[in-house]
Design brief:
Largest sheet: none
Shape: rod-shaped
Structural class: mainly alpha
Strand content: under 5%
Oligomer: single chain
Number of strands: 0
Distance between the termini: 101 Å
Radius of gyration: 34 Å
């Protein structure tokens, strides 16, 4: 017994559904549902892969890009050295 519904009641409902829709229609519905679930899983996996690629690219870009503060500090230091040389 499943939640107050016996196995015989389920079989009767299944028999009525088969009479109304036919086995061919039920097969099509089943294959469509399976295809939808498969497509959903592929979409989720592709989205995860894209996020991983974006994160790895962001890390590489961040590592390759010099810190703007460091670049500005170097420019100021070079300017000071040039100013000192000009004064001499």
């Amino acid at each position: 017994m499943l939640g107050g519904i016996s196995i015989w009641q389920l079989l009767i409902v299944l028999g009525i559904i088969i009479l109304i829709f036919g086995t061919k229609k039920l097969r099509n519905v089943g294959s469509d549902l399976g295809g939808a679930v498969k497509g959903f899983k592929q979409a989720v996996n592709e989205e995860d892969k894209q996020k991983e690629e974006e994160n790895s690219q962001a890390k590489v870009t961040h590592e390759e890009t010099p810190n703007t503060y460091d670049v500005r500090a170097e420019e100021k230091t070079e300017d000071k050295v040039e100013d000192r040389e000009e004064r001499k």
